[in-house]
Amino acid sequence: MQTTMMGVKNDNMHAAVEPQRLRDKKVKELVSEKRRLVEVPYTATLAHTMNALVANQVVAMPVAAPPGHWIGAGGSMILESDKHTGSVRKHYIGMITMLDILAHIAGDNPDDSGDHSNMEQRMAVPVSSVIGHCLESLSLWTLNPSTSIMDCMEVFSKGIHRALVPLDSSMENVSGVELVESASSYRMLTQMDLMRFLKGHESDLKHVLDRTLNDLGALVEPIFGVTDHTKVIDAIKSMRAGSLNAVPIVESFNAATEDHSQLVNGKGRKLIGTFSATDLRGCPVSHLQSWLTASVMEYTRSLLSVSANMAGSSPRELVTSCAESPLAEVVDKVVVNHVHRVWVVDSDGRLEGLVSLTDIIRVIRTSLLE
């Protein structure tokens, strides 16, 4: 039997070549220990939403609204209903990410006037008005609890970062991605959850984990980044335009003549840092206005250091690897450091490419099917 849903193909012919232990695993086993879903109502302000992201240490969360008043993200209908009566309680209308919030803040190029009331006004708008600033917030995906790990890997290998998993799906006979789903509660499954699971099954994956990034074709290039002279506001706008949650910070060739407001091809340039939407969660809202016109290096060196010292930890270090590194080393680095990408550099620290969670999942799945 072969089915296709929203571009996700399930082919049972592949089952015979999968390692037995992986083949027997289902998505429900990955979410069984996960905490209750963190969400915000559609009426929540951006300030409240940002606080919720920080307090729960998540990078995205679904937005819930009353049923019948919204068209779901991507045309999906993901509903929460009463387990006993079946009556619909809420409708998930989209996903809000830190990049959505930052894109809204940076949208009209504020000057460095230090007008905090202006920032307060921006952060007072309802979260429902911001959904769609970035493409990812317009996509809501669900994975049936009975979906196999291999089919889950196929979904995440296409660049889908997270999916809702209903705990009591009404569609037990279907696996893969759903257009319509109703359940009494959901859990969030992310690419990082899948990576932790795969790391826990290293013995099943030794044949692929021992191979190098080059050999597996895991490197992605060209790799676009920002220079050390790029302003925070320009970096945010560039990331929004490119649907990028993080970019490498590279040395500029010529500080005086180079255009620092646009993304640059970072290949061959010295890697000196990472600018991530996630890292801006640690910046107090009252300080965001003044930091928008600072350079990305000023921000990462100053504010992140302050935030890290307050938390009793050191600032996040650059996570890098080389093209001849075994995949096992990269998997270990992303899981231990909780990063969603590893920059690939040469012996002089110059960028050669990157490997994201999407790329890792893709090459592991491909290897399992060969």
TrEMBL record:
<dbReference type="Pfam" id="PF00571">
    <property type="entry name" value="CBS"/>
</dbReference>
<protein>
    <recommendedName>
        <fullName>CBS domain-containing protein</fullName>
    </recommendedName>
</protein>
<dbReference type="InterPro" id="IPR050511">
    <property type="entry name" value="AMPK_gamma/SDS23_families"/>
</dbReference>
<feature type="domain" description="CBS">
    <location>
        <begin position="313"/>
        <end position="370"/>
    </location>
</feature>
<dbReference type="InterPro" id="IPR046342">
    <property type="entry name" value="CBS_dom_sf"/>
</dbReference>
<keyword id="KW-0677">Repeat</keyword>
<dbReference type="InterPro" id="IPR000644">
    <property type="entry name" value="CBS_dom"/>
</dbReference>
<keyword id="KW-0129">CBS domain</keyword>
